[in-house]
Amino acid sequence: MAAVIGTAGDQAALDAAFEVRRAVFVEEQGIPAELEYDELDATSVHLLARDAGGAPLGTARLISGEQALALTGIADRVLLGRLAVLAAARGTGLGAALVGAVEEAGRALGAKECELHAQVVAMGFYERLGYRAQGPVYDDAGIPHRTMVKTL
Prior knowledge:
single chain; Aminopeptidase; 7-stranded mixed β-sheet; Bact_Acetyltransf; transferase; Acyl_CoA_acyltransferase; acyltransferase activity, transferring groups other than amino-acyl groups; GNAT_dom
C-alpha cells in the first residue's frame, strides 16, 4: 500500500489526523477523548499519511523545542507521540514510515535524540526501529507504557 506522508498543514488535514487518532485510540482502545486530545496538539507538528486517493491512513505528532525540553528534561531531544495507523493499513510498513518521518523532521530541527512513550505491547515494533527502553513501566490512560529513546 503506497502512502504519502506530509505535514497536516491546514485545518482539514489536522481534522483528518484527529479522526485517525479517534478511530485508533478512542474507539479501538477505549481511551477517553478528553485524555487523547490535549493542549500540545495546538503547537505540535502533526504528520498525516494518506493513500493515493487522499484518504487518511495514519498520523503521528512531533513535539520539539521548549515543549519537548519541558516534557523530557533533555536538550536536543524531540518527542514522538500519538502514532496511529488505521487497522486496514497496519502491517504495510506505514507505522515505520511515520516514525522515520518524525525522526527526519527532528533531525532537521537539530535534535540528537527522539523519545517516545510506547505501549508495552508495541515495544517490539519500536525496538526493531532502533529504540531502547529506559526506566520502569508506568500507567498512561490505563495502558502500561515505557519510555523509549533513539539516537538520531
